[in-house]
Amino acid sequence: MENLEALIGYGWYILTGAWATVQLTVFSCIVALVVAMIAGIVLTSNSHLVRLVARFYVEFFRGTSVFVQLFAAYFVLPLVGIALSPIQAGVLALGLNGGAYGAEVVRAAINAVGRDQREATIALNLTRWQALWWVILPQAVVLMLPSFGNLAIEIMKGTAVASLITVSELTFQAETVRSQTGDTAIPFLLIMVTYLAMASLMMAFVRWLEKLFGRGITSKST
Amino acid sequence: MNWSWDYVSEITPSLLQGLLVTVQIALISSVVAMVVGLFFAIAKMSANRWISRIAIMVTEAIRRTPLLVQLYFLFYVLPDIGIVLSPLVAGVAGLGLHYGTYVSEVYRAGLLSVPKGQWEAARACNLTSSQTWTQIILPQAIPPMIPPLGNYVIAMFKETPILSAITVLDIMGEALAQANFSYRYLEPITLVAAGFLCVSLCSAAVIRLLENRLNLRAA
């Protein structure tokens, strides 16, 4: 019975890491969403120079591994005077990395909105921003959602790597329990189930959003 | 912050050694992923509902949990039941299994993209099933698979630094070992980032080239 109590004790200890995982995931997703929107819209701009800047950002963050970016945010940025807490470094790296992938999604979705729609906004004399905000984006968002759902899950999976820069999230807690007690199977199975549950919840949420934003829009592919 | 070229030249040999290991891991795990993916794809498309349902559940479970946790599992939990893997083998197995689930989707999509009429035509022409596969279906299904497969190879390459967490001395492992030794993080991590950027931009260019050639042939 004492064994069971210990089991529950450290099981609970591991699950306290879930809060940090959720925080990391939510904040990184927000950063990624905002950055992806901005960079994605910029990627469709007419100006060569701004497009080049966005392209540089996207290629840089997609080209260097998120793992390297995390370590750079945590160990290198302090050297240039930007000292971040582990969670902040994690959010920065995961957010900017996700944003780079998301920017391509946004760009593709904006380009996928029919040409007739764009021509109609010109005919109606809408400004570029009005056209984007009221006509193009509402249609593009529906196209973006499935990819954004996958991206959010990729970001959540990325938070596990933040354990290596000492964020005390699920993986870090499980690692701690493993090194303290030598027990391996239960800590890792426990966090696997937790990650699986989180990912499935996120999937369900995205499906719900798809339905919400898809209302009134008939699918073009059918 | 002071950048020291002396230190750079001091650590470059070991980083290059690490880069070699990284590339090897990426290539071997790509092969593993493509083989594993094939099994998953066959199981998912199996006519037996139970087999396909279980295959879908397993692949979804693997896709929705972090690679790092899976690596820890292979490296720390398996020895408890008597399977001791070296860090390198555990890393390659983990990467291969994780990306095998993604690759299986590529195979499935490629096969499903062949119109049903092609199957019917093959049957109408009285082709044997091996003729149907090698002469009709695969030649049409494989070209659209190449670009996504290439992208997954690059993605795996960018995931290999995670293997340094289970003590594989890939480029990141070497860099962190150097950094821990000298307390200088700036140069090793910058060099690793530059190395990754260089390799992934080059390989992305190769894939784009490949994609263009395949499109030309299809057109």
Top keywords for this entry?
heterodimer; A: 222 residues; 9 helices; 80% helix; 0% strand; B: 219 residues; flat
Describe the 3D structure:
The complex is a heterodimer of chains A (222) and B (219). Chain A has 222 residues and is mainly alpha-helical. Helix content of chain A is 80%, strand content 0%. In chain A, helix 1 packs across helix 9 (185-214), helix 2 runs antiparallel to helix 7 and helix 5 packs across helix 7 (128-158). The longest helix of chain A has 31 residues, at 128-158. Chain A starts with a helix and ends in an 8-residue tail after the last helix. Chain B is mainly α. Helix content of chain B is 81%, strand content 0%. Chain B contains eight helices and no strands. Chain B has helices spanning 5-44, 49-63, 67-77, 87-112, 116-124, 129-159, 171-182, 186-218. Classes of the chains: A mainly alpha (222), B mainly alpha (219). The interface between A and B is large, with 40 and 36 residues.
Quick overview:
By secondary structure, chain A is mainly α.
Q: What is the CA-based Rg of chain A, rounded? A: 21 Å
Total count of strands of chain B: 0
The count of DSSP E runs of length 2 or more, i.e. the number of strands of chain A, is: 0
| Cα separation of the termini of chain B | 54 Å
Total helix count of chain B?
Answer: 8
Order of helices and strands of chain A: HHHHHHHHH
The end-to-end span of chain A amounts to 60 Å
Strand composition percent of chain B: under 5%
Biggest sheet statistics of chain A? none
Mean pLDDT of chain A: 90
Q: What is the helical fraction of chain B, as a range of percent?
A: over 70%
- Strand-pairing-aware structural class of chain A: mainly alpha
The amount of helix of chain A comes to over 70%
- Structural classification of chain B: mainly alpha
Q: Over all CA atoms, what is the radius of gyration of chain B? A: 21 Å
Estimate the strand proportion of chain A. Answer: under 5%
The whole-number mean of residue pLDDT values of chain B reads 90
Largest interface: A-B, 40 and 36 residues
Identify the overall geometry of chain A: elongated
